[in-house]
Design goal:
By secondary structure, the protein is of the alpha/beta class. It is built from six helices and 17 strands. Strands 1, 2, 3, 4, 5, 6 and 17 form a seven-stranded mixed β-sheet that branches. Strands 8-15-9-10-11 form a five-stranded parallel β-sheet, with helices on one face. A three-stranded antiparallel β-sheet has the order 12-13-14, with no helix packed on it. The longest helix has 20 residues, at about 295-315. The protein is elongated. The structure holds flavin-adenine dinucleotide.
């Protein structure tokens, strides 16, 4: 019996993959999501989301359960425990997707394998990992939970500065710990940071040439150990939370020989239609260049990719066409 061909196979059942599956399945396309672990992605690890439209406050697992039920009700299949290890374009234009034990064929693939926050590797980081306990990797998501409290922010790049300035709007005191004396971030951001630090009675302070070596507390974060890398002196520093802004690592190692990746491993695409360098292969969510790294934008990416998939089905030569405002994917 010949292998069945899916219209759309999505790699990853995080918010981007589930957003794509909803639109693909509602359009009656034969849709399969291959997921390495179980549906949810990064958002499944948080117990409070306050910035997803229509929900004042919902936990990650509850939101994902709703999303999963919705996509399967429209006929999408989800296969958990299916890690995609490689992909190959076939002569007939379809795409072969290899997992450890099985392989699948699809007319279109949407890559939605997400990213992971880079870890500090300090003792206590895993134990207190969620905003309720005090360790967070996303100021945009979790700053309001630290209103009036004292927090430490670790990092020195563009995102670290932007997120730390955002935190300072909520927390009573933010101490930014950076391992060097100079910032490598964009000058405009560094200037903004310096201006804020130098304001009279500023709630934003810097500890330069310093690293956080441990996160400590009973049930929740109560202090960190900060080491000065020049003197090796280590001191306890009392705080209610630690924000770690030291970068993201895209889950794209398995795609190295298949699609074009950026210097830091994100999948290159045109940001209007989310087309990669390989015809029929779209990308969505945190694994692509230019991703906003938010739940709502990941879902929206998935939806966009599934919408533009129809244009590819209509006219495969469209893949090489420039971005145009004549086209609209249409339908709802
Ligand atoms: C603790 C925490 C709290 C957060 N809170 C918020 C918040 O409040 N608001 C907000 O907007 N954002 C928040 N975020 C960010 C948000 O979760 C992400 O932006 C969003 O999950 C990205 O979705 P995604 O589908 O692109 O990727 P991911 O969520 O990373 O999902 C990717 C999926 O692909 C799977 N996968 C990876 N490789 C393979 C492979 N080879 N084969 C098969 N499957 C694979 C993974 O297992 C994963 O399930 C938070 C993130 C974290 C970690």
């Amino acid at each position: 019996m010949s292998e069945q061909i899916y219209d759309c196979i999505i790699v990853g059942a995080g918010p981007a993959g589930l957003g794509a599956a909803l639109y693909s399945a509602r359009d009656r396309f034969k849709t399969l999501i291959l997921e390495k672990f179980y549906p949810g992605g990064q958002i499944a690890t948080t117990d409070r989301i306050e910035n997803y439209p229509a929900f004042d406050n919902i936990s990650g697992p509850d939101l994902i359960e709703k999303m999963t039920n919705q996509v399967t009700a429209f006929g999408a299949e989800i296969k958990g425990g299916a890690e995609v290890t490689s992909l190959r374009k076939l002569d007939d234009g379809n795409i072969k997707i290899m997992c450890d034990e099985d392989s699948y064929t699809a007319r279109v693939v949407i890559l939605a394998s997400g990213s992971s926050y880079r870890k500090l590797g300090a003792p206590g980081e895993e134990e207190f990992r969620n905003a309720g306990a005090g360790v967070s990797y996303c100021g945009t998501c979790d700053a309001p939970f630290f209103k009036g409290r004292k927090v430490v922010a670790v990092g020195g790049g563009n995102t670290a500065i932007e997120e730390t300035l955002h935190l300072a709007k909520f927390a009573a005191e933010v101490t930014m710990v950076h391992r060097r004396q100079e910032f490598r971030a964009a000058r405009i951001l560094t200037e903004e940071l310096t201006a804020k630090v130098n304001e009279p009675d500023s709630n934003l302070k810097l500890k330069l040439d310093s690293v956080v070596t441990a996160i400590e507390g009973e049930g929740k974060v109560q202090s960190v150990k900060i080491k000065n890398v020049k003197t090796d002196a280590v001191a306890d520093f009392a705080c209610d939370g630690v924000f770690i802004f030291i970068g993201m690592e895209p889950n794209t190692g398995f795609l190295k020989d298949f699609v074009e990746l950026s210097e830091h491993g994100f999948i290159k695409c045109d940001c209007a239609y989310l087309r990669t360098a390989v015809p029929g292969v779209f990308v969505a969510g945190d694994c692509r260049v230019g991703a906003a790294m938010q739940l709502v934008t990941a879902v929206a990416d998935g939806v966009n990719a599934a919408m533009w998939m129809k244009q590819y089905f209509r006219d495969p030569t469209w893949w090489n066409e420039a971005v145009s405002d004549i086209l609209q994917p249409g339908g709802w």
